[in-house]
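Structure (tokenized):
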């Protein structure tokens, strides 16, 4: 349990910063907090504890090592050896294979990578054991990666947030293309094979989680698995409960047993699938704007962490006066709910807005 420490204005009256997240980015403002942001994030996720302030975006640092070939293939390496412009050009021209041997190509216009379509690795899910390559995660050069990333990991007091690019259904899409993956999820002749494949993938992710905790002291383990489109989920709640929740539950429990928290990145209008996130043991999910986040928070906020935004947009054009007032209203309205419902404060990136969120919530939670 965190000790209740009274707020001191010295916490914000300083010039402290975090180093830039990537080359060319500006440094991020930080505060002289009474406990580390990592400790505060752990308290935030612990329903038996209370944070000392509303966790801020700057309290986390994304960490995605190039040791995982998926991070290179997806052009999303966030460690001490980021991708060079020449490597990015090569990803766009020639692509890169992921840890399962699947070729991805970077699309500059989309700032993301896709599997080269039209030639799926797996045509029938029943053949996965003969076709799908699995890496030997234990044989990866973890010691070298640890040494390369000491400059990040050892001094870091924020919550290190790992980024696992391709979850269960997304991996099925990468193997079968979307149409084949969607069909396999509901085809009685393939469903048992899909369940077995997901179980094997869960073994791999659990092994990765074990290494991530040991090597980098990861705090937040985020798994990417998109379940929906702009208008609706890809599948029914019953299908998710049957096909994905069993293996996902194994991953979430292992992550928690290792002393990390489990976060889900899952794009799409997935409001009706929230019971599946909860049943699987997911601790936080950040819905895209097409979802009614406030409705979800009202209904499920005691079981799943959602992001909540201020009552006005906070942009570069917002005056400091309006930003400060919005932050104060936000804390006054939602801060008292933190005892029973946890939420991430989001939607505002002006430094004065973030500072006011910190100050007001520090005073309230002391």
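Design, position by position:
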């Amino acid at each position: 349990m965190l000790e209740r420490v009274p707020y001191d204005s010295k916490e914000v009256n300083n010039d402290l910063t975090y180093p830039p997240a990537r080359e060319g980015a500006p440094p991020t403002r930080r505060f002289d907090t009474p406990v580390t942001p990592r400790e505060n994030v752990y308290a935030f996720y612990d329903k038996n504890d209370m944070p000392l302030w509303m966790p801020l975006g700057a309290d986390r640092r994304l960490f995605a090592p190039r040791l995982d070939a998926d991070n290179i293939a997806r052009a999303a390496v966030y460690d001490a050896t980021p991708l060079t412009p020449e490597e990015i050009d090569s990803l766009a021209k020639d692509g890169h294979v992921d840890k399962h041997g699947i070729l991805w190509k970077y699309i500059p216009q989309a700032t993301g990578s896709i599997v080269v379509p039209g030639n799926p690795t797996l045509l029938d899910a029943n053949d996965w054991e003969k076709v799908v390559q699995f890496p030997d995660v234990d044989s990866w050069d973890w010691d070298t990666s640890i040494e390369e990333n000491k400059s990040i990991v050892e001094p870091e007091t924020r919550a290190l947030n790992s980024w696992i690019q391709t979850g269960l259904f997304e991996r099925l899409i990468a193997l079968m293309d979307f149409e084949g993956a969607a069909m396999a999820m509901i085809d009685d002749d393939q469903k048992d094979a899909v369940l077995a494949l997901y179980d094997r993938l869960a073994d791999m992710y659990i092994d990765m989680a074990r290494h991530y905790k040991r090597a980098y002291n990861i705090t937040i383990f985020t798994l990417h698995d998109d379940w929906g489109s702009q208008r609706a989920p890809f599948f029914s709640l019953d299908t998710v409960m049957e096909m994905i929740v069993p293996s996902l539950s194994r991953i979430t429990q292992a992550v928690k047993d290792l002393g990390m928290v489990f976060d889900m990145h899952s794009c799409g209008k997935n409001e009706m699938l929230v019971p599946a996130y909860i049943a699987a043991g997911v601790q936080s999910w950040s819905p895209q704007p097409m979802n009614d986040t406030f409705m979800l928070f009202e209904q499920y906020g005691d079981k799943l962490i959602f992001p909540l935004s201020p009552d006005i947009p906070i942009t570069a054009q917002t005056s400091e006066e309006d930003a400060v007032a919005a932050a104060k209203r936000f804390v006054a309205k939602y801060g008292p709910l933190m005892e029973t419902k946890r939420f991430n404060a989001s939607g505002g990136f002006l430094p004065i807005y973030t500072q006011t969120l910190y100050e007001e919530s520090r005073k309230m939670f002391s």
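Reviewer-requested clarification: The chain has a mean pLDDT of 96. The chain has 14 helices and twelve strands.
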